[in-house]
Amino acid sequence: MGSDSPAGGAIVFPGMGPTPFAEVGKFMLTNPCARRLVAAADDVLGYSLVDRYRDSDEAYSESAQVAFMVNCLALAEWAGEEFGIAPEYCAGPSFGAKASTAYVQSLPFADAVMMTAEFARCLAGYFADEHRDIVTHSFIRTPADLLHEVLSEMDERGNWYDIACYLDRDFYMVSLHEGDLEWLQQRVRSIGGLSLYTMRPPMHSKLFGALRRKAEEEVLGKLRFADPTVPVVSDHDGSLLRSGEQIRTLVLDGIVRPLRWPEVVATLRGLDVTKVMIAGPDGLFGRVGCTTDNFEVMRLTPRLALQPRRRPDARAGR
Predict the structure, then answer these.
(1) Which of 199, 221, 236 is the last residue of a domain?
(2) Which residues of 259-276 are buried (b: 16+ CB within 10 A; e: fewer)?
(3) What is the pLDDT of residues 248-257, one digit of tens each?
(4) Bridging pattern class, strands 232-233 and 240-241
(5) pLDDT, average across residues 109-132
(6) Which domain holds residue 17?
(7) Is the C-alpha dihedral spanning 212, 218, 220, 221 positive or negative?
(8) Chain segment 61-98, per-residue pLDDT in tens
(9) 293-299, long-range: CB within 8 Å, 24+ apart, which pairs?
(10) Could you tell me which residues are beta bridge partners of residue 139?
């Protein structure tokens, strides 16, 4: 099976970004794969996912998180039917790990839906009481040596921080106290960097060990993870995961370990992968330089799935 053919390569379920219902609602309501999975999710949740998501005004509400996961899986299923894709490897950076558990059949779809919903509730409850002054800020155009200078200054000032995401050669996310955010933004600007957005609640920090324990006990404790049908590339260190226990640990460790996307890229390149398919709404993983410089990128998006497809003319050849 060649990695540059439709039946090779790697599929990537992207981390979640704010995705308004207007951008994906038509896909959820009209695409056959999406409609089937939405109906199955409704049965698990006990409410209408579409209605709850449409009425939500929070970017990372429970319904928004479940909808993102369901849409990613629906796009992967649609692409399998439409293009015959059958990836040899899978990756699910950050939030994408939840979709990947169902895609590689480590969890049944129903369990993945319930896990995503309960994870959302667990995080919301935890950050309502803990670390309320911590945010995660993203910025680009900051090469590693210049970032080191900025973080060294934070050390000298006695300010806490943790690198949450290594996304590209000059693209990072850092968790810090909100009171230090303006200083960081100004300092990043002074070295030619560009601040992007600030996330609340924060993510990916060893400071959140109590949240990991809470999620393990309240969310994952009753779930049993099967060995994946295709190897999963860890977004923490680039290792290949082949057992259900490793997948379970990956999901939990996403709370306390940083995302290292260049490590995923390096592993896939070492496996001679030349094509990656990004399954889901994505403005990041399929666009950063370390991805586009190394792979042919196929973006499986709701917009693509909604485009009319040319079918062979039944009269052709007559």
Answers:
(1) 199
(2) bbbbbbbebbeeeebbbb
(3) 999 999 999 9
(4) antiparallel
(5) 96
(6) 10-129+206-306
(7) positive
(8) 999 999 999 999 999 999 999 999 899 999 999 999 99
(9) 294/265, 294/268, 294/269, 295/9, 295/265, 295/268, 296/4
(10) 172, 195
Distance between CA 162 and CA 135 in Å, rounded? 10
Three-state SS for 260? strand
Which ranges in 56-108 belong to alpha helices (H)? 62-83, 96-103
Query: Which of helix, strand or coil describes residue 148?
Result: helix
Rounded CA separation 285/11 (Å): 12
Contact present, 122 and 275 (Cβ < 8 Å): no
Q: Pick from 142, 167, 199: which residue ends a domain?
A: 199
Other beta carbons less than 10 A from residue 249's beta carbon: 18
Query: Phi/psi at 298 (nearest 5 deg)?
Result: -110, 115
What is d(CA 95, CA 260) in angstroms, rounded to the nearest whole number?
A: 13
- The residue-averaged pLDDT of 279-299 equals 95
Place of tokens 């601040």: 195
Q: Which tokens sit at 9?
A: 């390569």
H or E stretch including 136?
A: strand 134-140
Helix ranges, 109-143 (H) = 109-129
Element holding 277 (H helix, E strand):
strand 275-279
Question: Could you give the C-alpha distances from 88 to 4, 43, 272, in angstroms and in order?
Answer: 11, 31, 11
Contact at 8 Å (CB) between 129 and 251? no
The residue type at 153: E
At 311, is the pLDDT very low, low, confident or very high (cuts 50, 70, 90)? low
Domain CATH for 153: 3.30.70.250
Task: Convert the pLDDT of each residue in 141-185 to its tens digit.
Answer: 999 999 999 999 999 999 999 999 999 999 999 999 999 999 999
Task: State the total domains in the chain.
Answer: 2
Which residue's entry shows tokens 């995660």? 136
